[in-house]
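Run log, item B.
One chain of 337 residues. Sequence copied directly from the ordering sheet:
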Amino acid sequence: ILFTMKRLILFLCFTLMGISAMAQMMPDSTVQFVAYWDVGDKQAYNVSTSEYKVSESDTTEVEYSTEIRMFEVLAKTDSTYKLAVTYKDVHYSDPQTNLLYQIMTETSGDMKVILTTDQHGSIKSIDNLEELVSHQMKVVEPFMEMLGNEEGAELDEQTEAALKDYIVQMFSDPSIIEKSVYDEVGRMLYFHGNRLDMEKEYSGEIDAESIIPGMEAPIKAQTRVWIDTDYTDAYSAVGRIYTFIDNDTLLDYVVEYVKNLMSITGMSQEEIEKEVNESKDAIEQTALSSEEYTVVEVHMDTGWPLNVYYSRYINSKVEGETTQKVKKTDVEIIISE
């Protein structure tokens, strides 16, 4: 599903503003990314995502999904664009996830996000958050029923009620939708509004926010951003982003996440701390890290993204066993015939 608690959103925001009416290569060795769209313009993209688990012995494909992401320019002023982004023909390899998405589609139609951007194409706001919340709340009851039908799922009334409250909180939280949109659509428009020196690399520490309810503290991540001069010319510009989260930061996050999950089962704070302390040795012997790579190619004359490639690698070493979880997303423009 578009918005799930699986997704760790790393929305990276830089304030390097472009000043031109069109995206173009400048004579001072800089590239600026600016939208040049008209009302009625439409652009579609094929999107495919796959997730793998790689261990020392084998590689297993966990799941994959495909969709068509359709952009349409609804309105335009001197300082803004209004866009509709519609998710069509969505398919998940996981039968349960696919069924939940079908339920949403049958009750509310295709998922459509209405955005306002500035004159450069950088997202300013999501204008139909209330509608999107209502859209995904329709899967709460089917999701609970699905959980109850899983083999070995035996929940007492208190735990079931607490779990439902947690799920309702998750699906009704507009900030989760907002951050998910920024991760998926915002990643495509990440460089819009930026003017970058092709000879420089921009780096620093950023706050990566969590979408998990109750996990409000940001996650510290190291980020590098640069223009790939080998693939940038008068036709298109290619920007690259690299993000890294180290062991201590990620491990602390995972421990807090587990404690948060324990709390919904009714465990007291004292019981939770006792459980964590008893697992202290195992936690200290665990190694975790996360790396993300994003490549965005933007058409210079129009500002439409041409291709976006995103990959995330979560590396772990638990009890001597090394595992890597890989997520890859390819977004490719559909050329009209």
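Observations after the first pass:
- The helical segments are 95-108, 129-137, 140-149, 157-172, 174-188, 247-264, 269-278, 280-284.
- Confidence is low (pLDDT under 50) at residues 1-27.
Flagged for discussion on Thursday.
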